[in-house]
Amino acid sequence: MDPILFWNESALEANRLSHTYGLDTGALGPTQSSRTLAIFHTALYEAYAAVMGNPAGLEVYDAGRPNAPANISAAGALTGTAINVLQGLYPQTSLRPEMNLAGKYAMALSDAGNPPNWGAGVNYGGVMAAYFLAERGGDPNSSDLSYAPPVGRSNHQPDPDHPLQGYHGPKYGHDSKCFAVTKRHALDTPPQLGTVEYNRAVTQVRGRGIASELLGSVVAPSVRRAVDETVIGIYWGYDGAKQLGTPPRLYNQVIRTLAIAKNNTIAQNARLFALVNLAMGDSGILAWEQKYVYNVWRPVIGIRNHDSSMGQTGTTNATNNINDLCDINWKPLGGPRSNDIGKNFTPPFPAYPSGHATFGAAAFHIARLFYGVTAWGNDNLFDGLSFVSDELNGITTDNQGTVRPRHQRNFPRGLWQMIEENGFSRVYLGVHWSFDSFAVKEDGTPDLSKNIGGVPLGLNIAEDIFNSGMKKSSIGPVI
User: What is the pTM of this model?
Assistant: First the structure.
């Protein structure tokens, strides 16, 4: 197997196992998953590029990284880098029998043909791994740091079904240095409470994101979640679930499918997976910075508290005529608690922008740029291909222990369809407003002329990193 794909599979397995067993808490959740994968694939890229002499297409990312000795094994360098980074980022998970790093080492050595310069390559990989682990060693964690959201209407509050869930990453974006962007991309203010755009988003998610047991209360079929939408919502889930992990794992799985179909060279995969994961690394930073700038409440709070008499700062309604968009009993379909028993949930961080939308747009668009597709719109990169999400693989169970069916899905409009579908999926789960992903036109289609939501944020991150040549960022924490 291509060594980049081989070690990428190992990193994705570490993500899956850490979330399954609750190991290596510093690598859990969407922000830390994107961080670890960015470190991992940057180190792999630099190790391979350095050993190959940094030819065109494998330019230096970090000018300070250690140079490679002459005549060492590139496969050995990748192996030493991968194993040492995995052990550094996942010290507990790396000991799981499913990881079997000793076995992976033996497989990599066998695949390389047991070259005489293997050991020198492995040693250099260890040096490269140590460099990148140290270089990102000061990154903040995602603990709540005694954070308390600001009081007031439209501000984030915990999921009422999980009131003790805490807050993920309130300072992560603010306190992190960036990976590869040339500036801290920011978003415009989302639609405000009471505006036509906001009320349109409320109406949409109120019917399309409602819990399955409450679907009968949505009288009008035109605003009720359809079968296709339920499938789409679950398909793109990966909400830190057992056996599944997080969205960055899912998007890497999609890129693997594409890379294999394209018969990429090792050099192409080294750069492609570095680009994809650097884009997601910066997406985790910048999306979470914006989340805690705007502190927008999730639908489960916003719909229950839609009337001005509701909530922490509600005021007396003189007529007691409750706004019809308010539903004090409303619940979302929720982030899938897959392979576990319990209630589905709303993620523990503010809604705007959607992390899923930002990660997905950044990952898929930078892959589009890699393959020469620059325009925002449909592409043919997934023609003849299909993808099975681990949420719907015929093995994963729902939150009541029932096995979900296997669903094979194709994308005739390419990676662009994935970007849009991934964004809308969060509305169908009832955990996001549509504007968390993108502004929406009256006909319900995305309006990317506005700098609103995670999709334009992810697109801009991808174009920045790709067009600037994938160089180490000089952008530090917010001062």
Answer: 0.97
